[in-house]
Amino acid sequence: MAEQSSSGKRVFHPLYVPTGDVDIDRLAFFHVLERLKTQKRTGWINRNIPNPESIADHMYRMAILAMCTSDPSLDISKCVLMCVVHDLAEAQVGDITPSEGISKEEKRQLESEAMHSFGHDMLHGNEAALKIEALWREYEEQQTKEARFVKDLDRLEMALQAREYEKEHCRYLQDFFDSSLPLLRHDEVRGWGEALDRERRGA
Hints:
- The chain has helices at residues 22-32, 34-38, 42-46, 55-67, 76-85, 90-93, 104-122, 127-141, 145-169, 174-178, 187-202; strands at residues 2-4, 10-12.
- By secondary structure, it is an all-alpha fold.
- Helix 4 runs antiparallel to helix 5 (76-85), helix 4 crosses helix 9 and helix 7 packs antiparallel against helix 8 (127-141).
């Protein structure tokens, strides 16, 4: 798990040390998932949004959004699973943002180490571990249509949340829209984003 030091710099905790007992190590993984429910998304914390969403909140809505597509070319079951594992590494390293000065390469390395720890030290490389890690890597590599679709859902979900925080807290969060909606590539998701933009402009 990662925390903020008194200087504001992110502090990374040591990776899990396996006991060799399959049951104990599996339970350690089950417990580490709780962090996704309690850790708040960094972008909202930085903007002083009261009671901001958790990492798990974000991934859950993404999974439901995936189920709403009408694109017959997509493996929807894979997309839903990818939505719920794409930020799994953040249970260990936290929600790292560009403003923290951590390079993309370092972030990728930290997250890769976290996923390896989950899959091999906690889940002992079982079938579930291999599936989870494969889905995470597919998302990270962005080479399949499912991975690119889920990336668009990641962006759209952030824009949806930004709009809701604007309405709830009378805030102006334009930068969250600028960094998400123009980057949408999937035709249907882009249409959803355009509808959101019209809703926002008409308010």
